[in-house]
Amino acid sequence: MSAQLQVSIAYRPPVAVLALMGELDLATADVLAASAADLIGRGHVNLVVDTSGLRFCDSSGLEAICEAGERATRAGGSMRLLAVRGTLERVLEITRPEHRFRPEGGEGTWAATAADPAQRWRPAGTPRAHGRTAAGRFTGRGPLTARVTAGR
């Protein structure tokens, strides 16, 4: 059976949303890393990663997530994870001392904390649930600008 990861990217100013579908592991982590690096390189430094379609995440996937969060904060932005549950939630909890992601506001939202609190991003005047359904999925019908698939 072939494992794969699809990354769909949509722009919802002031953030770029990366929706993950499939498995994030050693064979597919580079897809997330490349997608995040490309967005940040083009100036989209505030990232939201919707993990509602993620079926599995191992340590390589966690490393790709953490590296993307670090890259975003170094560029003056931030990264948030939405709909964190299952394997990814367990991995984040177990490895909490080793990364900057912390639970934020419930409903499976985790945020990468910045070294300087002034670097933290939050849309001014926006309620936490803005743009999400109760299940944590992003709402709206913005243009799908990219779809990347990796398989093994």
TrEMBL record:
Residues 5-95 form the STAS domain. GO terms for molecular function: anti-sigma factor antagonist activity. Pfam families: STAS_2 (PF13466). InterPro entries: Anti-sigma_ant (IPR003658), MlaB-like_STAS (IPR058548), STAS_dom (IPR002645), STAS_dom_sf (IPR036513). PROSITE patterns: STAS. Residues 121-140 are annotated as: Disordered. Gene3D superfamilies: STAS domain. Belongs to the anti-sigma-factor antagonist family. This is Anti-sigma factor antagonist. It comes from Sphaerisporangium melleum. The lineage of its organism: Bacteria, Bacillati, Actinomycetota, Actinomycetes, Streptosporangiales. The gene is arsI.
